[in-house]
Amino acid sequence: MASIGTPVGCLLGGPLLDALGRRPLLLALNAPFLLGWLLLAAGARAHVAYLLLGRFLTGLATGLASVPATVYLGEAVQARVRGVFVTWNSIAISVGILVVYVAGAASRDDWRVVAWACAAWPAAVVPLLLLFVPESPVWLSHRGRAEEAEASLRRLRGVAPRPAPLAPAFAAELAALPAPPPPPPPGAPPPSRAAALAALTRPEAWKPLLIMNGFFLFQQITGIYVLVAYAVHVVDKAGVTLDSYQATVVLGGAQVLAGACASFSLARVGRRPLAIGACAAQTVPLLALAVYLHVGEDNAPALPLAMLVLYVVAGAFGLHTLPWAMVGEVYPARVRGLAAGLTTCPAYLYNFAMLQAYLPLEGALERSSARGGVEGVFYTFAATSALSVVFVLLWLPETHGRTAQEIEAAFARAPAPAPAPAPAPAPAPAPAPAPAP
């Protein structure tokens, strides 16, 4: 149910993000989060419908949160340190996964305690923190609220409010904020959603939209989120000898630590080289684990967990982190909310399809295996990980150190036309005949 609600939240989140702003939407989405966790915690003893509705609402809120959180980080920080901050959304998700893994290992079957703890977060913690967060200066400037945009940017950069003089770097950043769109002619209707959709037909919008949807597709078909959702099951099937719940805590801890390292790496390394290296690196442990299970020897009991840890670490540097980090970077400001929604909605649909297909796929591969093992699953994920390297090499753009204007211009730039051939010189006129004597 959560995987059904999340795409709906993404579709709603894009238009709401552009209409309401980043901060108001981040505040409003705590309501469905809170209601969903309360239904899960208190309504479970009443009827299963409360569980289903609670999961749908938490999924809806997750979809609503996916767009503004990523976009806000991309808009609020400077280009030179954007690589560090845009990954914090993924790191926060990894921390949440680790906390739930630890709580699950501690409480085992008493999951209601976990639900009550999760309800406290949107009830008090998140709204309190958002009181100290200013609205995005990019959104304010695009709405024609120049003074508020400057005040927001001053607050984010720690610059004294007016009438303090502006440093050259801050003045340049302020001047780079997007201008509001021109007003419609007198008597013309205001811009409609159709106009926003028409803006998606421009190359600076549709090119990154296609690329990011492909990037998110590889995130799912390489099994990154299958391991998150079916951690205990996958650990058991992989032949890990450690207690399954303890092994999931090890995997969650490795993901958090690797995500933090990836965050600081992005301040120095481009997106493309990191993605290429990470996608190639996750292919190796998947292939090694598949071969180990195929051979069927049990003389290296620590190897399955070690390979899963390496897979998680490589994913934290690449496909688990980079697609979410780049959503807030690659789209023009005028369609950023809509385009981000049209990216994250399919991403969660891919996630839903993958999670629904995984267990039947695993069963089919087990039945087709001569040894009755699940090595076919890991062979499949190794193959898709190798294909993701090709995708990155061919299509993923580099955004490291570039401003939003530079990224937009790179997508909008058309190849220079070939120079037209020079016209042939006109033939010289024939000389006039000499007059007769």
From TrEMBL:
Residues 1-400 form the Major facilitator superfamily (MFS) profile domain. PROSITE patterns: MFS (PS50850), SUGAR_TRANSPORT_1 (PS00216), SUGAR_TRANSPORT_2 (PS00217). One of its GO terms (molecular function) is transmembrane transporter activity. The chain crosses the membrane at residues 25-44, 50-73, 85-107, 113-133, 210-232, 244-267, 274-293, 305-326, 338-358, 378-396. It is found in: Cell membrane. Signal peptide: none annotated. It holds the Pfam family Sugar_tr. InterPro entries: MFS_dom (IPR020846), MFS_sugar_transport-like (IPR005828), MFS_trans_sf (IPR036259), MFS_Trehalose_Transporter (IPR050549), Sugar/inositol_transpt (IPR003663), Sugar_transporter_CS (IPR005829). SUPFAM superfamilies: MFS general substrate transporter. It comes from the Eukaryota. Residues 416-437 have a biased composition (Pro residues). One of its GO terms (cellular component) is plasma membrane. The keyword Disulfide bond does not apply. Keywords: Cell membrane, Membrane, Sugar transport, Transmembrane, Transmembrane helix, Transport. Residues 415-437 are annotated as: Disordered. Its main location: membrane. It is a multi-pass membrane protein. This is Major facilitator superfamily (MFS) profile domain-containing protein. It comes from Gryllus longicercus.
